[in-house]
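Exercise 3.2. Students should predict the tertiary structure of the chain below and write it as structure tokens, then compare their answer with the key that follows.

Predict this chain's 3D structure.
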Amino acid sequence: MSTSNAHILVVDDDSDTRELLLEILGEEGYRVTTAADAEQALAISKQERFQVIISDMRLGVDQSGLDVLRAYKNVQPDSEVILITAFGSLETAVEAVKAGAFDYLSKPFKIEDVLLHVRRALDHRDLVRQQPPEPPPRAAPSLSMLVGRSGPMLEIYKKIAMVSATRSTVLIYGESGTGKELVARAIQANSPRAGRKFLAVNCGAFTESLLESELFGHVRGSFTGATATTSGIFGDASAGTVFLDEVSEMSPGLQVKLLRALEEQEVRPVGSAQPVKIDVRVIAASNRNLAELVAQGKFREDLYYRLRVIEIDLPPLRERGEDIPLLIEHTLGRLGQEAGRKLGVSQEALSALEAYSWPGNVRELEHAIESAAALNRTGVIALDDLPAKVRGAAAPADAVAPLYSDLPSLEELERRYLFHVLKATRDNKSDAAQVLGISRRTLYRMLERWSVRH
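Answer key:
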């Protein structure tokens, strides 16, 4: 079947979203059927066959997009399922990938992204539909330490879910405090190595000789102070995972030995003439650009490519500001549980926390909340409880005054009028488009511009 004749099922409990997807997919030449809930979608599966199913994750109280995914993978295993969600999490991403989801889209979505994902799903289906379905991998423990529902974090969850089942080396980039070790632990926890040892080492915290001994072990008497034989982290983490943080700080000599260990799956303890076989997965991390260090001759090119088989780039907190309230809630919940009392945050303090740039990322945010909670006696963190630099980010009382001045911008007038029409039509997109004298598609593009969920 050609992709232009593909039959697509759209499942969403929001009628406007169903109509939008029906319109844009129909314009591309696809046959489109819609369903308002999971029950209707499952009933249709007995009558129609679909190449692609696009389903919202939230379909009421009792059922979700995961139910649609599992059902269609059972009755129509060669169909590809794309899930749309505004509430992504690592656990959901892992569960969806293991159940056979092709990909995720985050809300609010862009029309171009929908069409791109559909084309990719159809291409993928054509490549694999002749192959027998693989048995689902065994369940893995969840890990809830990663917090966030923003688009960038959803992409991170997807990558973790997809790479966990492999044994390939992973290189994680990210500024200090973004949670690189948490990502590494999430990969381990959702991999076949779950339950085995996860050992981490900061490569910048040791001299070259001490780091070599820490990683590869040593024999007794090999150097002053070596009073016993040790197997090192690579030996201790047998069948588990080794996390090399700040790998960019490793000396050139040790880079050669690490490369040999990765390629030959064996290490040579300090002072020993005999190599020792190892079975570890290596995940490395750096807050420096290794490609630039390679160009400067400060990092081995062959080791760089050996480490970056899979690359994950963690966004700084300033690029996912919508996750800040979730991170605050998560941190307050943890601190409150430890202190045996309920903790909250005032709106004024929350506004300052959201406005601050957080150069130290998630770690700095957690420390600021912990400090404020320790100084607070009421249980509700106030603006005065926050560090001075965070308080300084609070907007002055008249910061929004320009929006209500006599000289607003043309774009602001357009935005205000659009919201006024939506309110007057009770958020009915068809009526709003008619009042505005534009097509529904143009209306949705305007909503996308102002990041309005539709």
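Discussion points: Residues 325 and 350 are 8 Å apart (CA to CA). The first strand starts at residue 7 and ends at 11.
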